[in-house]
Design goal:
- InterPro entries: FMN-bd (IPR007329), Ion_transpt_RnfG/RsxG (IPR010209).
- Keywords: Electron transport, Flavoprotein, FMN, Phosphoprotein, Transport.
- The chain is α+β, with helices and mostly antiparallel strands.
- Helix content is 39%, strand content 25%.
- Strand 5 and strand 6 form a beta hairpin.
- Helix 3 crosses helix 5.
- The radius of gyration is 20 Å and the shape is globular.
């Protein structure tokens, strides 16, 4: 009888914990919606799988000032009438203890155009507002850091740093694996 009472308490506690673990998880856009954000409705989207050499990994890490977790990168190339209109990458990284997924969009020339939050699993107060994400546009890789030009968001410092690191990584991958190979 005593075992049964504790077992019920344990089950109720376990269910409560499991349901509250994902209480903050928010998915804002699906992959299909993300591609429309990046390229519009009528673009042709091609995926490029990029595999950097060990030397290219070193270059990317030096440019981005972040450590790469993988040697496989997927870039999406949006085209209209055969002309590249934008590049995009979907980046996931852990903010504090839970992931955020961002869509980083580059112009055809490889400049940062937009950063969108696709999913965010930390508490909502840690999510940088859209107007802050808009501040990242048109910055070069050298200008992307928390500084006087781009200030952090009180209460969302780790999220803003993660967004900047993701954008820097995508810009560096573009420079080393796409731009340098097309010249």
């Amino acid at each position: 009888m005593l075992f049964s009472k504790y077992f019920r308490f344990f089950l109720i506690s376990l269910v409560f914990c499991l349901t509250t673990l994902n209480a903050y998880a928010t998915v804002f856009y699906s992959k299909e919606e993300a591609m429309k954000l990046a390229f519009g409705d009528d673009a042709t989207v091609e995926m490029q799988s990029l595999f950097p050499t060990p030397e290219e990994v070193v270059q990317i890490e030096q440019l981005a000032k972040v450590k790469l977790e993988s040697n496989l990168f997927s870039f999406y190339v949006g085209k209209k009438q055969g002309t590249v209109i934008a590049y995009a990458a979907i980046e996931s990284r852990t903010v504090r203890t839970k992931p955020e997924t961002l869509l980083v969009v580059l112009t055809p020339e490889g400049k940062l155009r937009n950063v969108y939050t696709l999913a965010f699993h930390e508490p909502p107060e840690y999510l940088p507002p859209e107007r802050w994400m808009d501040l990242l546009a048109n910055h070069s890789i050298e200008e992307l850091s928390l500084s006087k030009d781009i200030q952090g968001v009180a209460g969302a410092t780790l999220s803003t740093r993660a967004a900047i690191n993701s954008a820097r990584k995508v810009l560096a991958i573009y420079q080393v694996l796409i731009q340098n190979k097309s010249h």
